[in-house]
Amino acid sequence: MVLMYLHGFRSTPFSKKGQIMREAFSEKLTFEAPDLNVGPKEAQKILIEATQNLDPSQLCLVGSSLGGFYATWLAERISCRAVLLNPATEPWCVINDYLGVQTIANTDRTIEVLPEFAQQARQMNCERIHPERYLVFLSTADEVLDWKKAQKKYADCPQILLPGNTHEINHFEQCLPEIEKFLVETPR
């Protein structure tokens, strides 16, 4: 089994959630986390390349925020399963708020956000999803994304509400038992 963590916008594979999952799961399965600090079109290439030799039935994505949007696109494309952590649902609507050079959290690196990223993201949108592929965590005090949009988009998927939690997901390690349970479940 391969667990692939897809980090959010201006984050890294070594974010707090990424480190917690790496520590929790790397002895039980193969843990991968590509760096997705690129535009949506380039992220597609990275994800296709990273998964081309993997059996989708043995792959589970964990996508956080923008990584959740990417995880949905990839899960629908290759028919694997995904855990979504406060997933972005319409990133093209906010890209213009971040145009220009942006600093990547806890690094000295940057990403230049270009206007064409909005259209690239829109082209990745999945209007229809297969709900049985997903487990969705939603923080009700998310200060970055409107959690109710994700609740609506993933309405037919198993959802776990995290009352009072922020976008970062305070005490993320408390989510690990449900993630592990999802990993070992036989897909429907």
From TrEMBL:
Which Pfam families does the entry link to?
Answer: UPF0227
* Name the UniProt record assigns to this protein: Esterase
Taxonomy, top ranks, is:
Bacteria, Pseudomonadati, Pseudomonadota, Betaproteobacteria, Burkholderiales
